[in-house]
């Protein structure tokens, strides 16, 4: 039962979205212009429409130019999506948010790299200490071994100079 709901919910949302798009089957140019005598809220129900407060007209959003040209409607007078937010404020807000996200990304990237390098230097120091300990133990073992060998040489009278070294 739960699996059916998980599968049917996205399908239902897709069907409703497509139904909304096809319900606005008027050509985009005429659907917005038909709402010229209405309010901003009525105009912006269609996402392809732009409301201009200065001329109190509903026009089709100029998709080709990304930003609506000043001749169509000044940016501070244009409304798209929400009637209470002008287009200029929307652009500035999105630019600031985008800048904050980019700066946060670079700060995180810098911190991760800095912490990684800090961690690796700590790891390198730890490995150096281990190497130094190992070398010290090895030197100690060598000296003990040499002492033992010297004692054995003394015991058997081999501690003097090698008699055969003259011939070498």
Widest sheet: strand ordering: 2-1-3
- Main beta-sheet strand count, sense and barrel state: 3 strands, antiparallel
β-sheet strand percentage: 5-15%
- The count of helical stretches stands at 4
Protein topology:
Layout: H1 2-23, H2 28-33, H3 40-43, E1 49-52, E2 57-60, E3 78-79, H4 87-155
Antiparallel strand pairs: 1-2, 1-3
Overview of this protein structure:
By secondary structure, this protein is mainly alpha-helical. It has helices spanning 2-23, 28-33, 40-43, 87-155; strands at residues 49-52, 57-60, 78-79. The termini are far apart. Mean pLDDT is 79; it is low at 1-5 and 21-28.
Summary of the model, kept short:
By secondary structure, the protein is mainly α. The chain is 60% helix and 6% strand. Strands 2-1-3 form a 3-stranded antiparallel sheet.
What are the salient characteristics of this protein?
168 residues, mainly alpha, three-stranded antiparallel beta sheet, single chain
